[in-house]
Amino acid sequence: MPHLVDDSPVGQRRQLGAAMRSFRKEAGIDRDEAAELIEATGPTLTRKERGESKFKRQEIEVLARAYDIGRDDLVMLLELAREVRAGTRRGEFPMFVPLKSRAFLELERAEAVEVLAVTLTLVPLYFQTEAYMRELWLRSGDLLAPERIEELVALRKARQQVLAKRNPPTIRAVVHELALRLPVGGPTVMQEQLLHLAAACDLPNVEIQVQPISAGAYPGMDAAFYLLRFRNGPAADIVQVHGHAESFYRDRETATEPYRVAWDRRKVAALDLRASKALILEAATRFEVATGS
User: pLDDT per residue over 147-174, tens digit each?
Assistant: First the structure.
């Protein structure tokens, strides 16, 4: 029998599997118990959840009932599975944003080996302090209730745990100097934030570079994104692009390539690691002066 090559988009397969794994964890069902429901072995389900093989429609429907997945999420899962099977190129449609957001967070937490972060006016989310986060959501213009803000803070703090997990991904960030100068929350909040950011520079799995204002225009100056990288090469890269009100996602190699190029150009144009940390500490000192400390 000839060897059958699975030529469906690896990014879509990986996201579908990650979303299914996330729903399973949320439902509190272990791998082997879930595998029995679809008459498979635990390792087989693991391969499906890693995107190494495809989920069948019937398997998704059976597991959706066990995981108590809502109708809207089930529709997205089935449509994405259909596109994976067909090898079509429609997987970036807006209807998939909630599902891909779930998958992105699961992949970031469980499978990514490297994260490339580019930010413009904000400190990268992995290094934000609680006070800084609260101020961002308080001033977002969305008139969020205090309870919702605290919920968002808790979710982001949970996302930051990726820094301290066993075998964490390498996080490489290029931050524009504007993020160091913008007084989010005032001098006290910013001084705390910048000292926290400077401390993160010393973590063994973190590299932070600053793009200085003095350099003027620079490559990719209109892009802010987070790019996840995996062990099986750039074909599996997934990009979360930050827009005004929501994020969108890129998961095809041709669609993620411009972000890899943008990252490389930004990295070369930014200050080196030592100079970047020095600039962060200098900005923190200016806020210290402003507070009168």
Answer: 999 999 999 999 999 998 989 999 999 9
* d(C-alpha 261, C-alpha 70), whole Å: 38
pTM, whole model, 2 decimals? 0.85
- Residue 6 · residue 54 · CB < 8 Å: yes
- Structural domains of the chain, with CATH: 10-106 (1.10.260.40), 112-291 (3.30.870)
Chain position carrying tokens 């890269």: 237
Site of tokens 């990009």 = 239
Length of the chain: 293
Buried b or exposed e, range 232-245, using 16+ CB within 10 angstroms: eeeebbbbbbbeee
Q: What residues have CB less than 8 Å from 40, skipping those under 6 apart?
A: 48, 59
Alpha helices in the chain (DSSP H): 10-27, 31-37, 42-49, 57-67, 71-86, 97-110, 130-138, 146-160, 178-181, 187-200, 253-269, 273-291
Among 10, 4, 5, 22, smallest CA distance to 91 is for 10
Q: What is the pLDDT of residues 45-85, one digit of tens each?
A: 999 999 889 999 999 999 999 999 999 999 999 988 888 87
The closest of 230, 260, 255, 247 to 18, measured between CA atoms, is 230
With tokens 């800084």, the residue in question is 132
CA R_g for the chain: 21
Q: Environment class of residue 19 by beta-carbon count within 10 Å: exposed (0-12), middle (13-18) or buried (19+)?
A: buried
CA distance 139 to 3: 56
Q: Quote the longest CA-to-CA distance of the chain.
A: 77
